[in-house]
Records
---
Amino acid sequence: MNGKSQTNFKTLFEILIISTRLGLTSFGGPIAHLGYFHEEYVRRRKWMDEKSYADLVALCQFLPGPASSQVGIGIGVTRGGVLGGIISFIGFTLPSVVLLIVFAVFLQTAGMLDAGWINGLKIVAVAVVAHAVLGMAQKLTPDVTRKTIALAAVISILLWQTAWTQVGVILLAGVAGYLLYKNQADEDLSSQFNFPLSKRFAAGCLTLFFGLLILLPIAREVTTLNWVAMFDSFYRSGSLVFGGGHVVLPLLEREFVPTGWLSEEEFLAGYGAAQAVPGPLFTFAAYLGTVINGWQGGLLAAAAIFLPAFLLILGTLPFWNSLRKNQSMRAALMGVNAAVVGILFAALYHPIFTSSVTSPVEFAFAALLFVMLAHWKLPPWAVVLTGAIGGLIIL
């Protein structure tokens, strides 16, 4: 092995070790993940400077998909090219994928879906999503106009519960954002942002992203293969999520619960468990896939829901300098982000609250878990453990 190959192998191995350690220890959701990344990659190892990291985070917030996972991919790309991005993604994501597959297998084997601790996990989901909604609302709907866009999204989602309502809401909110905020003053966007990817390669990734988005539903209609239908549902959900992992909940719920792929109890039990594991919330798909079609389905679901995020980050990195200076794009995104808050509020009410909180005792328990998370600042794993134990005792 020559010197360059040894250096490349050492770099890739280093990326794998560090990203896996982060994947095993990064609790607390996407904002916390970004803090862990900053500490490890910027402050300790200096793989990126502060401005480049901030620009990368801005790009990943701009794109649909799991922002923290996309930041991790981008850092891996800067350090080790496309292969470095793949390894960084695997290290950060695989631990929680494995844990949720094991949980789904255990749940089905033990037949414990009606156990009290499972009901406790369902109430944990109420507290976690409520915390996420309020936090995002403060940041993304600071004025009356964006609050109104969020309200319109809530009403639309609750009154017209179809597979395409969310897509329509996001598109209309983008148009509203463009019309209302296109003249807003620009930020300082003078710095440049460079990655070792060609624009030709990036264009190929974007072509594949849109091609799959169009062709998978067609393939689903002309075949009877369950794995094609599963891949389409998870890929489409991963393609349409603006605002992070919590927003994928209503998309996945409407893809799989009304169609009979799994019960609402199974869905919410897994969502509660997903709060207890480190890493990105999108790995919840691995649990769903395992319930539907065993561990092979879990791996397929995880690959399908993360593939859009991977294609988008690789496809936009070389074009980011131009995109970030486009005021029209940034204005549209202001409207989209407000609609995301509305989608979250709708998801908080249905299916999460309506199917989990059915008595005063359950409401009181949900309030306790919310205060533990939002005001006492206890770690998510402690809230999940309290939910499970409390479910055994009082539910």
---
Amino acid sequence: MSEYVSENASEAAIRKILHIDMDAFFASVEQRDNPELRGKPVAVGHGAARGVVAAASYEARVFGVRSAMPSTTALRKCPDLIFIKPRFDTYRAISKEIREIFAEYTPLIEPASLDEAYLDVTENRRAIPTATETAREIRKRISDETGLTASAGISYNKFLAKLASGQRKPNGQFVIRPGQGMAFIASLPVDKFHGVGPATTRKMNGLGIFTGADLVAMALDDLNRHFGKAGRWYYTIARGEDDRRVTPNRIRKSSGTERTYAEDLMHLAAVDEALGALAEKVWEWCEKNTAFGRTVTVKVKYADFEQITRSHSQPQIVASRDALYEISRMLVRRATVGEKGIRLLGVTVSGFPLEVAESDGEHQPQFDLLAD
């Protein structure tokens, strides 16, 4: 890749950013370790009535199976789908091997999850002249040493690198060069933007915003009025701008867990018991990391898939497991428990008064808590 310059002429910094994303990581590990699964549609997760897909192989994705999809829906789309229970210890061990490969090229590694990371290779340790060659070599090392494939996005900022990594999956790489960012984004549907979820997509579509070009046409004041603090972010990414650095020690802003239940929770006693187990798990993390927050958030998903969240913030930290539990109970009481069944509950603590660094990058959604 030629020398990087930003599309923002006022920015002097020149960066070469990679986004490395493992291909169908959990499912690929299972297919690697069990040859009988190769070439077949595989879902990592629990196939019971209330199970959820944690990851799907590419053979399963052909049928429309995706992560976070209820297992019943996945089986309707692909009746031959093979469910495999997740092995998170194995996935973490392989993720650590991959991070060790990254570290041979740069100290600037920011894990986003077990299966993806940002790397700043502006000054790589092997003096490889281009980011394209660096990405190609890293991907070959991953394949040779783990038997798994990875895709890479290459660009001059994190947002564009993330978008680029999805363009040549699986087992490929894609470059968005200086001067190409805005043109690439212009034709991209807004639901392909990292960080723009279904609800925001619907709101944008309602405002006539369907593509990056539509987003560029919106004034900053209008975006702020409709989207609040996120308005400026949408304004800048539509122009291919993102000044976030690759940060090796990510700042942990919250700790939470959630669970989908095999049977709907219909009574307060059952909800209280479930909240107790969730609060216990979150509190274990808080104590282990000496990180105590001021805000508690509960997430409730009803049997009809309606989902709500409720939060409570206080001046002082939540100082005990019992306090976390009682606040969680209070918030769920405000969520009309008993009017209809609850299929999922979640508890999160945030608002840490001290910054909590998460250097190992191993924080994952709690797929291992999904119903058996």
---
Amino acid sequence: MSDLSPPDPVRRILHIDMDAFYASIEQRDDPSLRGKPVAVGRGEARGVVAAASYEARRYGVRSAMPSTMAKRRCPELIFVKPRFEIYRAVSAQIHDVFARYTPLIQPLSLDEAYLDVTDHLGAYGSATEIAQAIRADIRAETGLTASAGVSYNRFLAKLASEQKKPDGLFVITPRQGPAFAASLPVECFHGIGPATARKMHALGIRTGADLRACADGMLKARFGSSASFYAGISRGIDHRPVNPDRQRKSIGTETTFDRDIASQDEMFAALERIAQKLWASCDKRHLTGRTVTVKVKYTDFRIVTRARSLSDPVSSEKDLLTSAGTALETLFPLSRPVRLLGVTLSALLAQDQATERTQLALFDTC
């Protein structure tokens, strides 16, 4: 792991990230909200912040924060209900902008994506000029701002996009990459979560430079198959391509109850509503799957999951509900009341593929 040079040939990767996407759309569409702390989500006692404006973030308000905590941190916080159909429509506009510049687009969510422009510079002199053009198009066509990172791999491009938020652009060149990675705390590295960061801290690994100094054998022993990735990013090396065909891994729906639920009848009534909503979402995307996972969050915020892997893909809403119900039954009697219930379908495949497989299976038994 002594080679600090970037991969050859050098790629030109952009990471485009919209600024406070949901909240910015709400402020754009309602001028009375501009310049004020805004949270998208339910403001009730059981609500959760889905997104926060930069004005709200100055008070420490963050996504996934309970609404009550957000209100304590920012008493002037204004809650607005999410309008996901609007967010999806604006996201489609933004992705149309991306497609003008390169076909190699890997969406990460509604509001961010990687773009590989290595072979698609066109009339532009550099990837930086393309990033500037994309940001200008987005502002002109949506009235929103985007931040951009430009570098020679995905890891550094994503880090770069965070350096001058909001409405900024930052470039990390191949010459700068290894030193930039070495200077960062490991908890800033995408791919190193809080638990892994704590484990690294316990080993005296606090920066990219510390990580780089570790022997390969030690990293392998402590972090298994992830060791080579960690060693690489500490040197500014990331060989992962921008994958425009990246498949969705799961699709899920959950609900936070207005009051704690403790009875089996109430839980299964809620599960039926969730399964109906989830299957409608699957139908819309023409997807199904073979693994059904039920998620429960208790009143003490402890989360448990129960999964069922099926031999055949889920074929209907009734099939989904049956599998989810079987998984949920294993949690009774409940150890304490429940505040949230969710269902996720994974091991996804297209519904037409599932139908073909079922037909082939039936044919084979004839």
---
Amino acid sequence: MFSRLLSVAAAAGLAATPIVGQAQQATAQGDLLGLPSDLSMLGETDPNRRVATALVNGFVITETDVNHRVALLLAANQRPVSDEEMIRIRMQVLRNLIDETLQIQAAEAQEMELPQAEVDQTYNRVAAQNFEQNPRAMDEYLRSIGSSPESLKRQIKGEMAWNNLLRRNVSPFINVSAEEVNELIERLEASRGTEEYRLGEIYLSATPETQAAVEANANKIVEQLRQGGSFVAYARQFSEASTAAVGGDLGWIQLAQLKNAELEAVAREMNPGQLVGPIRIPGGFSILYLIDKRQVLMADPRDAVLSLKQIQITFDPGTSEATAQQRVARFTEGVQAIRGCGDAENAASALGATVVTNDQIRVRSLPDQLQNILLQLQVGQSTPPFGSFEEGVRVLMLCGRDDPQVAEGPDFDQLMGQLENERVEKRAQRYLRDLRNDAYIEYN
């Protein structure tokens, strides 16, 4: 949870220079307004150079607030940023702080003030999970990265206040009938054995007027993600869907649930770990990340639990490459001659190798390449040798396999909750847009 909270501040991507076609279109629109072709600006031409503070319905967001939240972002992504990117980050963080303030104010206006004790309790729980029951250690860590406990607590307060507000003002008015849930169950049964997907999504809304700028922002986000940025962090920071709170994770879905032919077509061709976007959809743009995929209501072989023996040889410093290669060849030949797991220790001793046994290895916890190899092995067989002269060369011998039971689909209550959450998300987006439209915001 601590990493999830830290990743609230993710790197920003604002509008880049419009492409030629967009510039020509803008010029044509300017002619309709009677604007001169040669403009002489009478004030500051770069609004991003102003001091990043704002007054939101009387509440002051200071430059220190922005600095502390930016520090959380940089700690979450653990990579350097350019001066240009830092400007985008600061502007995005300021917008997020404004939304957070509006959410807290909306809750307080309806006499739903959040006791500080509840915020502190959540903060302490995060510290307990990550700093061995020591909130002071987390305090020190936050200060060491240039942030503060107050900044993280403010973020916690914003999330809790907004959730409380939605539970009282939105959730009670969401209706999902039993017939809708039963229809979904029937569709799941009918699609047994077909693939379902666990997707992450970053959704950015756009109007015809803002479309070019939002698309440029989305391209910048994709670029930063491909350079190593955290998808969870960016989703929490930029996505305008309610799933932003869980890093953009849509959970396990069938592609028809995306309710968009373009997204369905793109996701169907994706492989786990692949990032695609931005994809233009009605109302904005979507960036997709495929976390995993499996077959509907079928057991996943990667959930099998294996009993493995790791047989390994190491090399003394100074061993020549030729000598090492000869030893690897003898090791490979010797491993192939081992007569099952019962013979592993004796054979390994003769080869000058060590053996480590582990009886609780889940297939999906292993690297993808090893997963595919081990799933094809019979008990007593070994993987090809892998490793390096520096770290040692090893094989994994399969000594047992407990296959998963046939998967059970989500029950009635789980599907009911899924449909309710989807509808709450749509209402929440409209709710926040209304708060923005009604707000008095002054920038300094």
